[in-house]
Amino acid sequence: MHIQSIPMWVGSSNNYAYLVTDEASKDAVIVDPANPPEVIPVLKDATSSGKINLTAIINTHHHWDHAGGNSKILSEFKDLKLPVIGGKDCESVTRTPKHEETFQIGQKISVTALHTPCHTQDSICWLMVDGDEKVVFTGDTLFIGGEVHRRQSPPKTVHLRPHFLGCGRFFEGTPAEMHTALNKTLAGLPDDTKVYPGHEYTKQNVKFLTTVLQTEPVKKLQSFAENNVQTQGKFTIADEKDPTIQKATGKTDPVEVMAKLREMKNSM
């Protein structure tokens, strides 16, 4: 599995699109290609040179800064008749897999849809596995460190019984739903699953984390963020867990911890 990150709107919302290729067959999908002027040149170069066979668009949720480029991509590559795989409200969507439904990219990549409603009700995280390599594309459901998303979907920090260090705002859902999304659905993935979020927010997120935690993992994350522009794919599900964060909230009930952390981050 080869993953090419495509930064978009750098300096403002700092989104990522991801070009994921099955190296055995060259079949590829593009995840969240929201800004066509930045994504189309990459796709044209890869397809025209024979490096990839573009087979689908995949979306993590319907917000315009994730799915808003679908129609333009389809128009540019109309001969390919690409399906759009994502939540029911995504632009030009043609297929919405059920929770835990699987499909293949090429010969070796297995994809599993993980429904994680809260940030939006159509949020889906995509687990991709190629042999021993495991990655998850989390959109605005899980971030590295937790963040404030300023476009249509401002992310924040929430943590629970594994207490994940970062997630998106609850635009269409509740703390209970985000608790399920993070601490059950995503926390249930293998610890070595690498996280590819929808935005580069780690440096900003660390600013909040250091106000409530001074643990060694947070210090290491802070150091990495200060010395690296991009952090996607560099941290795992295990890295995103911290059982000590609930102490900062004064709460013990997992859903109350989630709600309090959201409130604390929102007020920062």
Quick take:
By secondary structure, this protein is of the alpha/beta class.
Give an overview of the whole structure.
This protein is α/β, with parallel strands linked by helices and 268 residues long. 27% of the residues lie in helices and 22% in strands. The protein contains seven helices and twelve strands. The strands form three sheets. Strands 1-2-3-4-5 form a five-stranded mixed sheet, covered by helices on one side. The relative contact order is 0.13.
Q: How large is the share of residues in beta strands? A: 15-25%
SS class: alpha/beta
Task: Give the helix tally.
Answer: 7
Mean pLDDT: 88
Low-pLDDT residue intervals, each spanning 5 or more residues: 146-163
Can you count the beta strands?
12
What order do the helices and strands come in, and which of them pair?
Elements: E1 2-8, E2 15-21, E3 27-31, H1 36-48, E4 53-58, H2 64-67, H3 70-76, E5 84-85, E6 102-105, E7 109-115, E8 124-130, E9 133-139, E10 155-156, E11 167-168, H4 175-186, E12 194-197, H5 202-212, H6 216-227, H7 254-266
Parallel strand pairs: 3-4, 4-5, 9-12
Antiparallel strand pairs: 1-2, 2-3, 6-7, 7-8, 8-9, 10-11
Helix pairs in contact: 4-7, 5-6
Key traits:
22% strand; five-stranded mixed sheet; globular; 268 residues
